Amino acid sequence: MSDQQHEPPPPYSPYSAEDASKFSNYPVKGAPAPEMSSQPSYTDSQNTQSATRVIQLPPVAIAVSQFGQFPVECDCRYCHAHIVTHTSKVAGALPWIVMGICFVLGFFLLIPWCICCIPFCIDSCLDVLHTCPACKRSLGRFSRI
Known about the structure:
Residues 1-50 are annotated as: Disordered. By secondary structure, the protein is of the alpha+beta class.
């Protein structure tokens, strides 16, 4: 190491004297409130452009689990346990629509009357309900429509 003495850096001044006069009307935190004066406010007629500062915030990523037809590993929003969802098949809108179509076609053809209830027995037509195995609350639903 050398024994040289270094001079300290010059003091940091973020604003010039001209900039300081622009901010003198703003209150300082912890300072007493200024008294209202009857002086007219001064506006610079030559400097008519106002400075606008645009602050861009980074995007916020929210992890949303998409419930599908298979169990999903996630955190329960009710009991906050890390779980794999329990799935069960429930009748949604699709089996009812298919049954209605078969019922209407049954007036014109004999075969659709026989298959009206089939959509309620096919797993690929039913909605999937995801529940938490710990607290048994519903977490989401995968709808076929």
